Amino acid sequence: MATDVEVPALGESITEGTLAQWLKKPGEAVAADEPIASLETDKVSVEVPSPVAGVLTEQVVAEGDTVAVGAVIARIDANATAGAAPQSSPVQTPSSVTNPAGAGETPALRGDQHAPEPASAGAETSSPDDAITTLSPAVRRAVLEYHVDPSSIRGTGRDGRLTKDDVIAAAQAQKSSAPQAKAPAAPAGAPSAPAPQAKAPAAGERREERVKMTRLRQTVARRLKEAQNTAALLTTFNDVDMTAVIDARARYKDLFEKKHGIRLGFMGFFVKACALAAKDVPSVNGSIEGDEIVYHDYLDVSVAVSAPKGLVVPVVRNADRMSFAEIEKTIADFGKRAKEGTLGIEDMQGGTFTISNGGVFGSLLSTPIINPPQSAVLGMHRIEERPVVIKGQIVARPMMYLALSYDHRLIDGREAVTFLVRVKEAIEDPTRLLIDL
């Protein structure tokens, strides 16, 4: 008797998700607790494990379908023998990169991009290279953008799956090794077919591509717009001389890494500076709930991290009580897991204050939007040498613009400016962080 595979609980207030990718094909053997599908929720991607060991006999839903918590998405037969995929499966098998028109909601590759040939119907096993034919939406878009053959790329992701970085690296290698693009080679053993005619885009040709927004992008868009509609947003700016922090990193980076196994970055300084400033201006670390103001005696910092599917904000909990090493290790782990898509829902929940570092992408200045129900967000930007006047002399110093966006319903302008000045003072004189001044 087959065992139903149901959508697991996805976290507080999350009732549904989108089946982003099948990780197993019908007819393939699966082990107990082995992931068979990836779900995309409003916040993170969640892998669905098999409840039993056996063979995946049926995929009940297709990639791109919306599924509710508790819904059956597949069936596992514990007594079956691995073999060919059942012909009655209603879901398109992952051996095809492109979707026929109207199949699910995942956009198909278009233009002159070619998909690998389907595997033989009688094949009982698949080679490691077969894993790359199961492409996530982000990878599928990258394949289309860079015009590479996914069947020729060896994936570095989990179970040999392709990642966006794999596609970009292959495109760069292809560009450097071959001055002229060549059509993808047919898979070994595939029947010969007439060579496709290369079609170069005509001069001035205009193209369009429609890609369905991911659930994460939809949620980000909705929450940011809600913040603008609800909060009385205002941004105050300041600049900070990074000389002292840069000198401290240069002096202690080797000893720090040798002792703690992690590099000393800028985020540790800014998190500690915000924790110090929040003691003087607690409203920045507060929130509005109905007609009440909630003040927190702890600082849970949401750190904006770029992930393949969009911006995510995992939370560094009790950051005010953490050491520099603990902060750096936690943020580094978040960045690694965000890239791999393994952040859990519990990593994203909560948060009393947000720090966003647009400087890593080259941003000079911005007005960040708060992350409700939080009341403030600090925006960091790139460091560049600028002329400043010190003791009557014009000198070049490594300067960074800081921006604090805040909810004016809770935080007065005086409080916002005071908070930002406290952060500036702590960064320009890191000794303040040690003596709590």
Key terms:
single chain; 437 residues; OB fold (Dihydrolipoamide Acetyltransferase, E2P); Chloramphenicol Acetyltransferase; 6-stranded mixed sheet; 4-stranded antiparallel sheet; 9 helices; 26% helix
Helix and strand topology:
Layout: E1 2-6, E2 16-22, E3 29-30, E4 35-40, E5 45-49, E6 54-59, E7 66-68, E8 72-77, H1 137-146, H2 164-177, H3 215-230, E9 233-241, H4 243-260, H5 266-280, E10 287-289, E11 292-294, E12 301-303, E13 305-307, E14 310-312, E15 315-316, H6 324-340, H7 345-348, E16 353-357, E17 376-390, E18 393-407, H8 413-428, H9 431-435
Parallel strand pairs: 12-16, 16-17
Antiparallel strand pairs: 1-8, 2-4, 2-7, 3-6, 4-5, 6-8, 9-18, 10-11, 12-15, 13-14, 17-18
Helix pairs in contact: 1-2, 5-6, 5-8
Task: Explain this structure.
By secondary structure, the protein is α+β, with helices and mostly antiparallel strands. The protein folds into three domains: 94 residues, OB fold (Dihydrolipoamide Acetyltransferase, E2P) (Beta Barrel), CATH 2.40.50.100; 80 residues, no CATH class; 216 residues, Chloramphenicol Acetyltransferase, CATH 3.30.559. It has nine helices and 18 strands. A six-stranded mixed β-sheet has the order 9-18-17-16-12-15. A hairpin with a 2-residue loop joins strand 17 and strand 18. Helix 5 crosses helix 6. The longest helix has 18 residues. About 11% of the residues have low confidence.
